[in-house]
Amino acid sequence: MPAVLPHRRLGGSEIEVSRIALGSWRTFERMPRAEAERLLASALERGIDFLDDARYDDETGKAPIPTGYSEVLFGELLRAVGADPGALTVSNKLWWEFWPGQDAIGELEASLQRMGLDRLGLLYSSTLPSEVPVPVAVEQIAAVLATGRVGAWAVVNWSAADLAAATAEAARAAIPPPCAAQLPYSLARTDWVEDPAMDAALAAAGASLIPSAALAGGALSGKYSDGAAGRLSDELGDPRRSAALRLGAALRRPAAALGTSPATLAIAFTLLHPRTAATLIGATSPAQIDAALDAVGLAERLTSGDVAELRSLARLRLPADALSSGRSASSTRISCCYLGSRAPESSWCHGGKRVASVRSGEKALNFERKVATAFRMYASRRSRATALPTACSAAGRWSTAWPLASTSLHFE
């Protein structure tokens, strides 16, 4: 954990925020009040000064109001821990849920009233409903900025096309463009952020990136492969979660080599994006906050080879199926071995037949790609139960930065 948490400026605004942002979502509503206060106090003591809140409907059946109690509780917790709102960047969102009956100023004022605050550092516009086109949204946000009750504005989960259009509309309205975009970004999902159209839209706006879902709902923590319980416990069999869960299991190996945890490593990856100002996290314990803060220092130590390995795992996920609890009776043992770029040849064999090879001078990632292709071809010819790897061991590390002495993977 860094002694002093670094800060980054949000786009072209004057706002500087801690590299880790703490989101509240409905988390505090599900915690005993004393634990919620300890959690928030812990974040503030460790230097987190970027806090993200929003209005949510009650799901507990116990809140005194049907919607927005998340904001009420957030404000109460701030006061309970003695926080100075003026020293923080507090953000909230426009949902446009009651448009046109409630305009942007009305939605903002209702949120501020529930939170017990006079102003926000940052106001996000969430994804626009069809009845609110981009020009109307920007006009509404211009009116909000004119009140002086918001320091800057940003967007959440917007498309590249809408972000580009908003930047152009902001210029016509003589207001600053959005200073940031909060978008899902993780090892399990890079497409939204790394799409060339989105990169161009962010560049045109001069906007920073605020990665959300950095742990893919907790799947990248790696804890589920050890049988731990968590928010995804009831979704472990959901095919939509399987890739991220396998990737979380695969992250244990590089994390151990770096002396860290899969969660910290996954968060560090998001901090490495050149546009990232702060990564948004959720936490239910001070230990989870510490793990996120450790990612700030880790991101500064990761080499290009480390990053290449992470991207390789995310793309290929070869050693990730250790989540499988059992073995097929007809399972087949397959081995591959990379002996280093100076070896005459490294090969991957099955049944005595070479199915992938790398010639002298090629690096580990090339070999891994060839193994992946060969394995997929093999899997397509065999039953799923037989072909999927259910156990994996690895010695050494995949890397594009340096050759390895020896690396082997065993699939059974």
Written overview of the protein:
The chain is α/β, with parallel strands linked by helices and 412 residues long. It folds into two domains: 7-314, Alpha-Beta Barrel (TIM Barrel), CATH 3.20.20; 324-411, no CATH class. The chain is 38% helix and 17% strand. The protein has helices at 33-45, 69-80, 104-115, 134-146, 160-172, 191-194, 196-205, 239-250, 252-257, 262-271, 286-301, 304-316, 364-381, 384-387; strands at residues 7-9, 16-18, 20-23, 50-52, 89-94, 120-125, 150-156, 180-184, 208-212, 279-281, 334-338, 345-350, 353-359, 394-395, 407-411. The strands form three sheets. It has an eight-stranded parallel beta sheet. The protein has a five-stranded antiparallel beta sheet with strand order 13-12-11-15-14, with helices on one face. The chain has a two-stranded antiparallel ribbon with strand order 1-2. The longest helix has 18 residues, at 364-381. The two termini are 39 Å apart. Residues 317-368 and 374-412 have low confidence and may be disordered.
Topology diagram in text:
Elements: E1 7-9, E2 16-18, E3 20-23, H1 33-45, E4 50-52, H2 69-80, E5 89-94, H3 104-115, E6 120-125, H4 134-146, E7 150-156, H5 160-172, E8 180-184, H6 191-194, H7 196-205, E9 208-212, H8 239-250, H9 252-257, H10 262-271, E10 279-281, H11 286-301, H12 304-316, E11 334-338, E12 345-350, E13 353-359, H13 364-381, H14 384-387, E14 394-395, E15 407-411
